[in-house]
Amino acid sequence: MKRIAIFASGTGTNAANIIRYFDDNHDISVKAVLSNNPTAGVLNVAKEAGVDSLVFTREEFYETDKVIRYLLDNQIDLVVLAGFLWLVPELFIQSFPKKIINIHPALLPAFGGKGMYGARVHQAVKAANKQETGITIHYVNPHYDEGDIIFQTSCSLSDDDTPDTIAAKVHKLEYEFYPKVIGQLLN
Ligand code: GRF
Question: What's the domain count of the chain?
């Protein structure tokens, strides 16, 4: 059995989608949901799905090995970031080489980097008058949105699109492809 841990800071619709996708899979399961935010919606997602969760503080994440230990104790094979907003520290990355992935709601290297998350990404895509946007799934390194790219796919945009409709198109791609790519990495 391959075990996934999902890290999220917010609502967790991707987390919910990934948990659902692997629900009846006998080889892969979502073992834990971890969050830096004690009021994150993703913690309810985990509770309702019967998945263990762990909330950690900034100090625990950056100055102790509590989170690393938790993942090792639970024999996690892949760490999946899905709307997790903190930079992952070097020691954490070294502890799980090529085992931490993230999804970014745009076609990196465009519209990435510090501060480029959530609605801001889609607002920037709209302001730049782009005819397409998409998703990027990539390995995580100690810099925001800079790790090696694993997968990208795009969707077209029209002048009528707003940041909200762009977000909806991107979420649709995320729901379709993030679980599939996770499955491929673990097979
Ligand atoms: C997603 O758009 C993802 O690309 C980004 O954060 C967002 C999380 O959304 N990294 P949700 O909480 O899964 O709805």
Answer: 1
